[in-house]
Amino acid sequence: MTKTQKFKNLLSSNNLEFLMEAHNGITAKIVEKTGFKGIWASGLTMSASLGVRDNNELSWTQVVSMLEFMNDATELPILVDGDTGYGNFNNVRRLVKYLERIEIAGVCIEDKVFPKNNSFLESGQELATIEEFCGKIRAAKDSQNDSAFSIVARTEGFIAGRTLNEVLDRAYSYAEAGADAIVVHSKKSDSCEIDQFMDLWQAEKPIIIIPTRYYQTKTDHFREKGIRMVIWANQLMRGLIPHVEMLAKKIYEEESVCSIESSIAPLHTLFDYQNTVELEEAEKKYLHYRQRLPKDKSITTKNEIV
């Protein structure tokens, strides 16, 4: 089964499905090993992993380069955070074509203007018009060659302080334009905005949420509301930072690694994630030229004088 079909099956599942954030090859492998069925390639954490901000400081070609490594590292389908599509409808068309080439399962684009700001920043949450964003969705759908490739539309209406009616209007418009699923985003500390939306939503398109701020809401509540998918969008990166800070500080202060060696992954774990065993087996198979020369001294090399 292709990765695009795997993700399509998650969208059509009768169960509440979960995507976990990853931002490089090894985190993608960790997500797969843990048991998740799909990956969210987070724009925030991919940017953070390279030390830049989440406002399109990474170009889409740099993002695609990172995605190639992530996709090669796992059999899981990847839904990539495509921000606003990195420009207008034409940029979206090129993005979709490149993502299909490297077997990414789908792209999520949001209805803010380019360049975007992260949704949890207080300023810079300017929305595109409904008409402009619907044009991007139609362009994306018209550009795909694989019918199973997913175009997910993300409305930032609640993030920008718009009314429930406008958020619903945007979501229905995006569904009509051809989006395969809708992400409804909220930065409230509870799920009240999402609940209000779901109480009125009547289209068949699956709804996806990102409960970064309202994480205390029980997942059974999301099931009851009919939500199809939950994205844990940034927790691996946020969990990584304090541990790395602690380790770096401890090594710096003690001028030694003795006190931390027992609490970090042994080297063989790192080698396992890199699949070093496969390379060793391949070397045995393909590096026959390293075999010794025959012992018959009458056989000479071209550099020897007979």
Topology:
Blueprint: H1 3-11, E1 17-22, H2 25-34, E2 39-41, H3 43-49, H4 60-72, E3 78-81, H5 89-101, E4 106-110, H6 130-143, E5 150-155, H7 164-177, E6 181-184, H8 192-200, E7 207-209, H9 219-225, E8 229-232, H10 235-254, H11 267-273, H12 276-286
Parallel strand pairs: 1-2, 1-8, 2-3, 3-4, 4-5, 5-6, 6-7, 7-8
Helix pairs in contact: 2-4, 5-6, 6-7
From the alpha carbons, calculate the radius of gyration and give it in angstroms: 24 Å
How many helices? 12
Spatial strand arrangement across the major sheet: 1-2-3-4-5-6-7-8
Topology pattern, helix = H, strand = E: HEHEHHEHEHEHEHEHEHHH
Beta-strand share of residues? 5-15%
**What kind of sheet is the major sheet?**
8 strands, parallel, barrel
